[in-house]
Amino acid sequence: MYGRHNPPDRTRFYGDTLSEAEVIARGLEKEELYRKLLAGGLETILVPGIRPFLDRHRDLPMAVGTNAQPEKR
User: Fold this and answer.
1) Cβ proximity of 30 and 38 under 8 Å
2) Is the pLDDT reported for residue 32 higher than 80?
3) Residue 46: which region, alpha, beta or left (left: phi > 0; alpha: psi -120 to 50)?
4) What is the pTM of this model?
């Protein structure tokens, strides 16, 4: 479910039976579980080669762009 959004997954996993409040609640539970599972393991999901690239260019200005929801940033 990496990179997926909760509303489309609602239909995929539960059909159309969940209310919007239930979708939000389950999405928050999913995010909490994801953060617990990822704790201390961020390096394992980085794009291959990105760490050496960032280290090699650490003296250059950098920015991050994301389409993640604010609470996930």
Assistant:
1) no
2) yes
3) beta
4) 0.52
Asked whether the beta carbons of 46 and 55 are under 8 A apart, the reply is no
Shortest CA distance to 69 belongs to which of 11, 13, 6? 6
Q: Return all residues near 2 (Cβ < 8 A) that are at least 6 apart.
A: 45
**Which tokens in the block code for residue 53?**
């690239």
DSSP letters of 1-56?
-TT--HHHHHHHHHTT---HHHHHHHHHHHHHHHHHHHTT-GGGGSPTTHHHHHHH
